[in-house]
């Protein structure tokens, strides 16, 4: 029996990338999966998930009416959209926030409860004094934009940003009120103990990304394999009385539907009474 509502990220059905126009126009620099979202949604529903998360670029490809039809066809709920930004460069921050505002508006119109961002750019010459303050101030603005639309905003610590290690994550959340969306694979790959970090930040967690990870060769995996044991993570969520949406994520897999089914089978087994 499932303890939480389960969603799946639709980013696994094609190559991951961004809108190339964003190279010269920051306001257009959305994430996207180059895939047919109708196929992804059908597979996600068939694998037994109740909800879906997707990138801002894929979301903004649709009118609200057409996206509702896609949800109606599959019986899925839109749970969250995912976006991001550099967040430390003053001159382009208004452009990044404009893009986020458009995505938040669409996400809210479709009835989703959450909006997630990653980011915090690594400079070519390393982290500079003030970068964490700039990131945290930007995250406050993101949280405010989300709240204006009735959404809960979240920061998703991510590899290749200045929010990788447990110390960096702790520093960021000491300076911002935005909620913490733990991606268990990214936290582990950044040197953290995801279960311990969930316990530490329990009051800031209302949405979770579950993902498997193997160290060598580096890869994200379904929950039933790899080097990251998800059992202590699930125990931490139970112990902290988490009762929200959990989104399973994979990023890439040769057979996306099979990957979604493997993780669902793992979770169903985890939820069986002892």
Question: Would you give an account of this structure?
Answer:
The protein has 274 residues and is α/β, with parallel strands linked by helices. The chain is built from 10 helices and 12 strands. The protein has helices at residues 37-46, 56-60, 64-74, 93-109, 131-148, 166-173, 184-189, 194-200, 231-239, 256-271; strands at 5-9, 16-18, 31-33, 51-55, 77-85, 114-119, 152-155, 179-180, 207-210, 212-214, 219-221, 245-248. It has an 8-stranded parallel beta sheet. Helix 5 links the parallel strand 6 and strand 7. The longest helix is centred in the middle third of the chain and has 18 residues, at 131-148. The model has no long low-confidence stretch (mean pLDDT 96).
Q: Key features?
A:
274 residues; 39% helix; globular; two-stranded antiparallel ribbon; eight-stranded parallel beta sheet; 12 strands; alpha/beta; 10 helices
Write a brief structural summary.
The protein has 274 residues and is of the alpha/beta class. It has helices spanning 37-46, 56-60, 64-74, 93-109, 131-148, 166-173, 184-189, 194-200, 231-239, 256-271; strands spanning 5-9, 16-18, 31-33, 51-55, 77-85, 114-119, 152-155, 179-180, 207-210, 212-214, 219-221, 245-248. The strands form 3 sheets. The protein has an 8-stranded parallel beta sheet with strand order 8-7-6-5-4-1-12-9. Strands 2-3 form a two-stranded antiparallel sheet. Strands 10-11 form a two-stranded antiparallel sheet.
